[in-house]
Amino acid sequence: MTMMKSFVGAALALALLFAGNAAYAIDPLPFKDRAEELRFQHLAAELRCLVCQNQNLADSDALLAKDLRNEVFEMMQAGKSDSEIKEFLVQRYGDFVLYKPPVKPATWALWFGPALLLFVGAIVLVVVVRRRGAQVAPGAVGEEDLP
Amino acid sequence: MKSWRFFLPLLGFAALGLLLATGLRAGRDPRLVPSPLIDKPSPAFSLPDLVEGRAPVSRDALLGKPYLLNVWASWCVACRDDHPVLMRYSRKPGALPIVGLNWKDEAGDAKRWLRQFGDPYAQIAYDFEGRTAIDFGVYGAPETFLVDAQGVIRFKYVGPLTDQVIRDEIESRVAAPAAGAK
Predict the structure, then answer these.
(1) Which of A50, B8, B13, B120 could form a disulfide with B86 if both were Cys (CB 3.0 to 4.6 A apart)?
(2) In terms of C-beta density within 10 A (0-12 exposed, 13-18 middle, 19 or more buried), how is residue B87 classed?
(3) All structural domains of chain A with their residue ranges
């Protein structure tokens, strides 16, 4: 029970930590309601700042990031969908601008590589464990072997 | 025990080393963003010239002759390395006209910069808001585009030009337009 409590506490602390880091637009934009602001922040968090490449558009205060945020905001005002806005940026800056690259042959290794490695690792593990199990005769390892 | 198994870790290490070596290979800039605009028609634009009294600079007015589009600004430090190369190139016989795209700059600062360092540009599009730069996928100055007579972007170079880049990447494409079209 106390374990559970401390786990929840740790999770809460973590959540707070990341909430403090959430995407706040650096320059205030005239959103008409909270939903629009959330949509904007969600979108800006998925787009990469081309100048400081390990930051997203929401967090960066580079001049170009500000321009691109304005561009995204204006496209939202013009009634463009999220995918239309992303397409606009991809046409100019390539897939690189998306933090979540599309699944296509060039990115298969990126998307499926980790799962494949995990799978291969699991097979190796199972094989090794089975062999060890077969090598050691039942009853050979007991408490009497321990010092 | 099969003896080849002892070589497995070594093999793994070699594979990892190879992977990392490829990543570090000289001349490969991880910050370089490949432009999706190569071999596509240049985006349409129409901007005032930085110099008052000159005609506006537009894609359509530039059609019919290849040119270089050079993105620069007075606040851009690397442009100071780029600029002398452009100055040298512009004096060469048979050089392509260089069209400047002055990016998010104060007109006064930009003009002072040209007085100080010289003006290699045939025309200078003044993009204060940076809209045209976004259409060209510009993410840092200097950037240079080679646009052919049909208005198609053939080549893009990010960073300060050098005489070698002018010779190997730009002049070679101009001399053999067919090669650039492949």
Answers:
(1) B120
(2) middle
(3) 9-101, 103-136
Q: Which residues of B touch A (CB under 8 A)?
A: 31, 33-37, 104, 129-130, 134-140
ipTM: 0.78
CB contact under 8 A, B137 and A96: no
Cα three-residue angle A99-A102-A107, rounded to 5 degrees: 95
Cβ-based burial of A145 (10 A; exposed 0-12, middle 13-18, buried ≥19): exposed
Regarding predicted confidence, which is higher, A111 or A135? A111
- The amino acid occupying position B74 is S
CA B66 to chain centre: 15
How far, rounded to the nearest angstrom, does the alpha carbon of residue B142 sit from its chain's CA centroid? 7
CB B42 within 8 A of CB B137: no
DSSP, res A48:
B
A92 and B36 in contact by Cβ < 8 A?
yes
CATH architecture of B36-181: 3-Layer(aba) Sandwich (3.40)
Cβ–Cβ below 8 Å for B134 and A51: no
Q: How far is A109 from chain B (nearest CA, A)?
A: 14
Cα distance between residue B7 and residue B11, in whole Å: 6
Pairing of strands B153-158, B143-147: antiparallel
Q: Which residues contact B115 (CB under 8 A, 6 or more apart)?
A: none
Please give the order of strands across the beta sheet that includes B98-103: B123-127, B98-103, B67-72, B143-147, B153-158
Distances in Å between the Cα of B12 and the Cα atoms of B5, B6, B7 are: 11, 11, 9
Which architecture, in CATH terms, is A9-101?
Answer: Orthogonal Bundle (1.10)
Stretch among A6-15, A70-79, A119-128, B97-106 having the lowest mean pLDDT: A6-15
Rounded to two decimals, the pTM is 0.75
Say whether pLDDT at B114 is over 50: yes
Helix axes B79-91, B107-117, angle to 10 degrees: 60
